[in-house]
Automatic annotation (TrEMBL):
The gene is rfbD. It is an enzyme of class 1 (oxidoreductase). This is dTDP-4-dehydrorhamnose reductase. GO terms for biological process: dTDP-rhamnose biosynthetic process. Residues 5-308 form the RmlD-like substrate binding domain. Its EC number is 1.1.1.133.
Length: 323
């Protein structure tokens, strides 16, 4: 049996970077970033820029993948409030193009979405079929992307995740470790709930699920749908920041820590252009039971991430901290 081809878009993002590793054993991986690439067999140019809708539409049949995994997205939540057209183009229009191309080729589409499709009411973890009501431009654009996938008729896995951190790219965790070496006091919102989720975990779960789907032959159709994928447990951004700094102080005691206190504040005390849901908790039961997978507590992945970045903290302490 020849190895299936998998087309990965967004290879250089937090999740895309880990997918390059996790998807490699599943088949022949064609991984594209913004700059695109060439078709391995024919040398034909391939488009990886999601803003180029025509190029994207031509790239899928050129690769003829068994599955497309789309990790590219417009993810700057506050900036999206000022750039709604661009967010819509990348997170919805390009996704519609990919989904329609997948439907035509009979390819599976794996696509990522977010807890920000919910309005954050209540305290119960959100289930996949709960009503969506985004509060932000980013959330609206991601919901439109989901809807385009469903409307295309392609077989798909829409994986909604949240609070992603990884070894590549910017994220809340990196911001907190920087601020903890620059400031005496951090003030962090304590009334928005979710689970910090590692890009490595997301990629590994994606690979397990996709392997299952690609091995299932005609029986695979029943897997098509939406799943919540997040680490277990829940905390607030403030709880997350405290855990990060505590772990980082232990892992790199000489990194020039300046912070004395991490103060919990309400959302109202930290005004941002985009509104964010108070309750982003995701119920992951469907994913775990359908694919026979287990999602570890969020602290496990965060502690590993801190251990992996600790050496860089030691050598790169900010100036002016006495270290
Ligand atoms: N980050 C998070 O907290 C969460 C993310 N998600 C979803 O998970 C998925 C992966 O996110 P994550 O890896 O964290 O995001 P990142 O922002 O780390 O990565 C997104 C990647 O997409 C690329 N990209 C942006 N615009 C384009 C474009 N026009 N053409 C091609 N590539 C483009 C970015 O490139 P560049 O760096 O050059 O802009 C970047 O490499 C996304 O669908 C996101 O919506 C869901 C919940 C939480
Ligand atoms: C830097 C900082 C942020 N905050 C708050 C602002 C905000 O409410 C919260 C998180 O801020 P960030 O902007 O880092 O996180 P944000 O970009 O909103 O993260 C989101 O990204 C998108 C892509 C998703 O899909 C979501 O699941 C989620 O991960 O922390 C503070 O309270 N104090 C601070 O010092
Ligand atoms: Mg952000």
């Amino acid at each position: 049996m020849s190895a299936p081809r998998i087309l990965l878009l967004g290879k250089d993002g937090q999740v895309g970077w880990e997918l390059q590793r996790a998807l490699a054993p599943l088949g022949e991986l064609v991984a594209l970033g913004r700059a695109g690439g060439t078709e391995p067999a024919t040398g034909a140019p391939l488009v990886g820029d999601l803003a180029d809708l025509e190029g994207l539409a031509a790239t899928v049949p050129a690769v003829r993948p068994a599955a497309i995994v789309n990790a590219a997205a417009y993810t700057t939540v506050d900036q999206a409030e000022r750039e709604p057209e661009l967010a819509q183009r990348i997170n919805a229009d390009a996704v519609a193009v990919l989904a329609q191309a997948a439907a035509r080729c009979g390819a599976w589409l794996v696509h990522y979405s977010t807890d920000y499709v919910f309005d954050g009411r209540g305290e119960r973890p959100w289930r996949e079929d709960d009503p969506t009501a985004p509060l932000s431009v980013y959330g609206h654009s991601k919901l439109a992307g989901e809807e385009a996938v469903r409307a295309s008729g392609c077989r798909h896995l829409i994986l909604r995740t949240q609070w992603v951190y990884g070894v590549r790219g910017g994220n809340f965790a990196r911001t907190m470790l920087r601020l903890a070496r620059e400031r005496d006091v951090l003030r962090v919102v304590d009334d928005q709930w979710g689970a910090p989720t590692g890009a490595d975990l997301i990629a590994d779960v994606t690979a397990h699920a996709l392997h299952r789907v690609l091995s299932a032959g005609g029986a695979a159709d029943t897997f098509s749908g939406t799943y919540h994928l997040a680490a277990a447990g829940a905390t607030t951004w403030c709880g997350y920041a405290r855990y990060l700094v505590e772990q980082a102080r232990q892992a790199a005691p000489d990194a020039g820590w300046r912070v004395q206190a991490i103060e919990p504040i309400p959302t109202a005390a930290y005004p941002t252009p985009a509104r964010r849901p108070s309750n982003g908790r995701l119920d992951t039961t469907r994913l775990q039971t359908t694919f026979g997978l287990h999602l570890p507590p969020w602290q496990h992945g965060v502690a590993r991430w801190v251990a992996s970045v600790a050496p860089t903290l030691r050598c790169c302490a900010p100036t002016g901290t006495g270290h």
